[in-house]
Structures are given as C-alpha cells and as structure tokens.
Amino acid sequence: MKILIVGGVAGGATAAARLRRLDEKADIIMFERGGYISFANCGLPYYIGNEIKDKDALTLQTPESFYARFRVDVRINQEVVSIDREMKSVAVKNLRTGEEYSEGYDKLILSPGAEPVMPDIAVKSDRVLTLRNIPDTLKIKNYIETQKPGSAIIVGGGYIGVEMAENLKNAGLKVTIVEMQDQIIAPLDYDMICDVHRHIVQKGVTLILSETVTSVQEDDSGLTVILGSSEIRADLLIMTVGIRPESEIAKNAGLKVNEHGGIVVDEYMTTSDENIYAVGDAVEIVDFVTGQKNMIPLAGPANKQGRIAADNICGIKSSFKGTQGSAIIKVFDMTVATTGINEKTAKKLGLAYDKSFTYSASHASYYPGAVNMSVKVLYEPESGRILGAQVVGFDGVDKRCDVLATAIRAGLNVRGLTELELCYAPPYSSAKDPVNMAGFVIENLLEGRFKQFHWHDVDSLPRDGSVILLDVRTKMEYINGHIDGFVNIPLDELREHLDELDQKKKVYLTCQIGLRGYVASRILSKYGFDVFNLSGGYRLYHSVLGQTEHPEVIGMNPETQLPESKESKESKEETDMQSIKIDACGLQCPGPIVKLSAAVKEAKAGDILEISTTDPAFACDIEGYCRRTGNIFLGMESEKGVSIAKIKKSDDNDSQSTCSIAAGNGKNFIVFSGDLDKAIASFIMANAAAALGREVSMFFTFWGLNILRKPEKVKIKKDFMSGMFSAMMPRGSKKLKLSKMNMGGMGAKMIRSIMKEKNVDSLEDLIDMAKQSGVELIACSMSMDVMGIKIEELIDGVKIGGAAAMLAHAEESDMSLFI
Ligand code: FAD
C-alpha cells in the first residue's frame, strides 16, 4: 500500500510513525513544505524568550532520523499543490528547484495545519511578523538580536499572543498587548481571567483591552499602531489574531469543507473521499461536551487524530470522540488551565447550567509553599453532567484541571468529584483535594444545603433594608475592604447577634472566599432564615469588580490590589536596609497578620519588616493594618503565589494613624493559664485597670477557658473526644488548681481562706466585678473548638472571638499581657 502524507509536523509525523509501526511493508511518503519536520511548535515562544536555549531542541526529528527509525521517505521543501482524486495522485512542487511532479497514492492523509491570519490593515514590513514555525521564530529572534528593538506590540491576546508577550518581556522588550475583547485568553470566562490580567500587568506588560487595531504604519524610526481612539508606537509587532485552516488543496479537490474552511471528516478521520483522511488544525471536529461541530486547534487532538487515521488505514477501527478543548498556558508565574466549555458558551447555547467557585490551597497549608488556586466548575444541575472547568493559580493547577478533564471525558457525574481518591501527602495536596472541594460545594448546592448568589448579582441587591446584607469576616478584614451596603458580624459572633436579625428578611452573606459564608448560612438556616451565600466571596467579587486600572496610572499594585504608596518608590533605598524577615507562608487569615503584629511590637522604629505569605486575604489585611497602626506600607510583590510585603515601623504611630481606632490606652489580657493564682492575678489587674477608666479586654484561650466555665454540668451533645476532654478539665473557677503547692486541692482551699481572711475578693467576686465594670470577656473560638467547649457551657456575658478580635484589642491598647 502506498500512503502519502501532506504536512510533516504534529498530525502528519504522528500518522507516519504509527503507519510504519502497524505496517512494515507500506510505502510511506511525507511531504513538508517547510525545511523542518516534527518540530515543537509549542516550544517556539520559549526559544525567543531564551527559556529554551538550544535551537536543536526544537526539532524532535530530522528527515534523516525519521528515515532511519521509520523508513519513511520524508521530502522537505516540497509542497503538495493539488490533488487529483480521479487519478489518486497529487501534484508536488519542489520549492528548491521549482520542479513539479506527481505522485500516486492508495491512501492520502492531509495534515496541513492552519496559518496565522495577517489582516491587511498592517503594512508589509520586517517589523510586522507572525509565529507559526521555525523560520518565523528565527526571524523574530534575529530581529531582536540584530535590531535591538526596545518595544513590541502583540495584537491579539490568545494563547500564542500571551506566550509571546511573556517571552518578549523576558527578552528585554517593553511589551503591550492589544486585544479587541475585554479579556485575554478567550476560552476562560471573564471572572476567572481578572486575576491573570492583574498578574500580567504587574509583570510589566501593558494590557489594552476592548480596543481594535485599525491600521499599522511604518516610518524610519518604527511602527505606529492606530487604535480606535489613540495610537501607540513600537519597534516590533507580532500579529496573533487567529489562524485559518490551510485547506485550499482540499477545497480545490472538491472535498467537503465547512464555512471556516475546516475539512469535514467523520469519526474515523475520513474526508468526503474514502481514500483521503484529514487530521489536525485543518479539520472540523465535534465538541465533546456540546456535540456540536467546531474548530479547536490543539496539539493533543492533532496527534491523536494522526494515530486514528493511520489505524483506520491499517484496518483498525479507531474513532475520534471529539475535542473538549483542554488547554493550559503559563502566564509568567501563573498557570491558567481550562477544559470543556466555558460559561459564555453555555449561555450562548442556552444550556441549563450552574457554576461553583472554590479557592483552595495547592497543598496542605501548613507545609511550606502552599498557594491558592481558583477553581470554577460548570455543570448541569439536573443531570449532574460536568460541562467544563477552569483553574487559575500558581502551583498544582495542571493536575487539578487534568483530573477535571478526565472526569468530563469519563462522563463522571459532578457528585462523583467528592469520591475521587486523589494522591495526598502534605507537599502535594490536602486530604480534601481542590477537586474534591469543588465537588463538596456542588453536592451541597445540589442537595439544597445552601443557596448561592454570584458576584454579578451583588450590585442589584436592594440597599433599602428589605434584605439583610451580611459580611461575616473578621472586623479587620471588613475594615480593609467590603462590599457597599454589607454590615459586619464576624462569624464567631453571629450566634450572639441573631436577635438583631429580622427573620422575615432574606439574608445575603459574604465572607472572603465563600467558606465562612457557608458556615454562617448553615447556622442561620437552622434558625429559620432564608440565606444566600456569595459564591467565591469578597475575593472573587473584588477580583472582578475591584480596581483594575493600570498601576502606572493610578498607583495601584494590581497583584495586591493596594495603593502603591509613594513611599514605596521614594524609599527604594531604604527598603534595601537590613530588614526583619517573617515567614508566614501556609498560614491562613488571621495567622499572618498576627505574626506580623507580634514582630512589629518587637521591632524598633524605622525597622523594615518583610513578611512572606501565601494567604491571599493578607493583601487586604496589611494595608488596613498599616492604616490602623500608623506603620508605613512600602509595597507588596508577588512571585509564584508568594506575596512579600514590606512595612516600615513608624517613628510615631499615633501621629501617622488615620484611623479613629488607633492605639489607645486600653489594657489587653490574654489569659492562657487555667491556674487559680494566675486567674486571680489577671482579674485583680483587669479590675484595677477598669477602675482607672481604661478599656479592658480579656481574651481567654486554651486552659484559660476553664475559668469561664459554668460550675454545673450543661447537657449538650458532644462527640466522644470532646466529651472526654471537657470532662477531664476543671469545670469553672471553683475547680481551678494552684500552679504550685496545690497539694491535691489543699493549697487552693488555703489560698481562698487566706484571701477571705485578708478581705481580698474571691475569684468569683472578681469575675463579677470585672463584668460590672465593663471588662470585655472574650473566649477564643479556636480553643473552644479544639477543647470541645460550647458557648452554652460558659458563664453569662462572655463573647466569642478569634485571634483577629484579640489583635484589634491589642492594637487599641498600650499594654498586652499574656498570662
Ligand atoms: P502543523 O503542526 O501546523 O503542521 C502542518 C504542516 O503542514 C506545516 O509544517 C506546513 O508547512 C505543512 N503544509 C501545509 N500545507 C502543505 C502542503 N500543501 N504541502 C506540504 N506541506 C504542507 N497547541 C497545544 O495544544 N498546546 C500548546 O502549547 C501550543 N502552543 C503553540 C505555540 C505556537 C507558537 C503554535 C504556532 C502552535 C501551538 N499549538 C499548541 C498548536 C499546535 O501546534 C497545533 O495544534 C498542531 O501543531 C497542529 O498540528 P497539524 O499537524 O494540524 O499542523
């Protein structure tokens, strides 16, 4: 059998190799118009950016090596110019000699690919280039090396455009992307691309969105690119506005093509002529998710189709089931991946879909280097069919999107995501993988355990009091930025404020990423409220609708979404001073701010503190923290998901503070100990401070919680461990022991009687006195959880609070005492 192949790269070379593996006797000839075969198109941008240093690494095979291994007659620089279906032959032009000849076939495989579109708005120039193959790559690389252009414009923000932007930036050029849509990388939805826009701008690329290039002109000193309302200058322009299938010879031979020029094939990759197969970027495919005909040019499908065409020629009935558009791109430090359809497509097709947004750590947050990723999953609520997924983050994005791609391909019901048993150890994932987490959220939605609303619903919510808009983050997070109209009741205090909420009104909840909102919605719905939780929380809302202007224009750091203080530029030299480094990576809010606050207290005025975190909430926290404390925010940089913020400890906190709740003369006691003597000392000092008119707060954590327990047993349902634990601990102030000389309780009794003798109030009286004097008694929510203590077991008048509440009090005090 004689088989001819047109095109010697992804689809063509794969088909040739497979044919030979299946048939040792076949006569195989592969024609390639260019000078290279089987080259790495996908690696070309990285050679331009010097990431790939060796040009030879781009060519996976040469005609000689291909012949040696597969005995395929590879004819480079030879173009197939026409097909004679009657004669079963092709006309070939040798591009070196100009000679033309014909070659007959039994079977013909077309894998001619797609060519970059060059709109006629652009002048013909050495400065205006496209990228498809090795000669294009060498042209761009050579231009950069010899002409030393200072700037480049990429027209079109698709995959290739964005990869070129990164690589030209890495090659030292000032880069601008002009994109006519309001977003780059169209397969992603707008709400998932906003973080990527910020990242790319933060890396120094100028993004011009929603602008069309109307013409490109050239003069001696460079190019002028005319946009709708402005013009920009550049030394080099790369046109990446799309590709067009190279299907002329197919069309001229009367093979069926679609309206985009895509060659029509069946599932066996057979064209409208049974002796001609076609594969790769030039063919129309079936969208695996929608079942509709489409063009999705990607290397994976091209390779698979080449193999399938070869199989069928050799009598193996392989079929191509469709393309689902699984794609991934590196955008500087970020990874952006997608599979299946996006929300735009679901909407366009009128599909009944719902979506989930989750935000999960790449691996266990306590193991160094954990960074968060955003996961969006689209599914059909009725059937549970997964329609698509998008994942954006810094680490572990590829495997999560691949798992979701596999789930789609395998027809896994969305509920099945909860059951996937994925590899876990702390450096790699969490016991609940981000894919499982997406599944849990969706399952809860499908089971009606909570209802959600989305970032695009927020602005239309009534602000007239007819509904309750509630933000359940900590006070500090709220102060640092919140959605207009939302009031703050921190999650841990929610139960105490239930009577302030009108049960007849719908409640719209938000938190930072959706998790605390879910907990709050469970609490409220148990008390009869009709509750909706903001999917993706304030983080997503702010990512999509927050400030996105170019940082040079508004002085905004796009990564941190914080104002880049003048100080950050002016005091560049200062920031080079010796600084105190704080590693808060892996800690979740409010962990990093607590760590920072403690370090600030230790630091001297003028010291620079540099804190590394992976908690995205920290970006919001730190600016507010500086505002509240009067310390100076010097800026924040992010790399690979780790943000490094610098602050300077202020010389004069009070005078620089712009916030009314700046440090005051309050007294803050953190009562960790549950010893009788230490409890007595704490309350004596607290009452003394209150008597002097100071605001006093006492934060009870771990063993200190026992002081606040009611003496009587409270009937409450607990799990076994919690029940055991709380039964073993002293129940209330009267059961506390002395830290020294307790002597089986004798010591404690003796102290009490001596105190009585000397007219010193008992601990119980001191506690009452403190309550009456307005001392705030706060029980640490985290310790309660750990120790299995419930609110019902605590004496009246105690509030529940988190570390952030304690920190807020610490900041408003001039003394914090840890007992
Ligand atoms: P091609 O690989 O383009 O091969 C077609 C070949 O046919 C060409 O070399 C052409 O010269 C030759 N030819 C055309 N007509 C004739 C003729 N008449 N006679 C003889 N020869 C002819 N995809 C991904 O999935 N991931 C990526 O990261 C990725 N990155 C990319 C980066 C760049 C810069 C480019 C250009 C593409 C990238 N792609 C990527 C797309 C991927 O390379 C294509 O989907 C894939 O190469 C298509 O394979 P193909 O065989 O259809 O066409």
Helix content: 25-40%
Mean pLDDT metric: 90
**Separate helix tally:** 27
**Shape annotation:** elongated
Please indicate the percent range of residues in DSSP E strands (runs of 2 or more). Answer: 15-25%
Our Rg estimate from Cα atoms comes to: 33 Å
Strand order in space, largest sheet? 3-2-1-7-18
Outline the fold blueprint.
Layout (H helix, E strand, L loop, with lengths): L1 E5 L3 H13 L4 E6 L11 H5 L14 H8 L2 E4 L1 E7 L4 E6 L5 E5 L2 E4 L3 E3 L11 E2 L4 H14 L3 E5 L3 H12 L3 E6 L10 H13 L3 E4 L3 E7 L2 E6 L3 E4 L1 E4 L3 E3 L2 H5 L23 E3 L6 E2 L6 E2 L4 H15 L13 E5 L2 E7 L2 H6 L5 E8 L10 E8 L6 E8 L3 H13 L24 H13 L4 E3 L1 H4 L9 E4 L3 H5 L7 E2 L18 E4 L4 H12 L4 E4 L2 H9 L5 H4 L1 E2 L4 E2 L2 H5 L1 H4 L3 E6 L6 H12 L5 E6 L3 H13 L2 E8 L2 E7 L4 H4 L9 E6 L4 H16 L4 E5 L19 H9 L17 H12 L5 H10 L3 E5 H7 L10 E4 L1 H9 L1 E6 L1
Helix pairs in contact: 1-8, 22-25
The chain binds flavin-adenine dinucleotide (FAD).
What do these coordinates show?
The protein contains 27 helices and 41 strands. The chain starts with a strand and ends with a strand. It has 819 residues and is an alpha/beta fold. The strands form eleven sheets. A five-stranded parallel β-sheet has the order 3-2-1-7-18. The model is unreliable at 548-576 and 653-662 (pLDDT under 50). The structure holds flavin-adenine dinucleotide. Flavin-adenine dinucleotide binds at residues 6-7, 9-12, 31-34, 41-42, 44-45, 79-80, 111-113, 131-133, 160, 246, 249, 280-282, 297-300, 302.
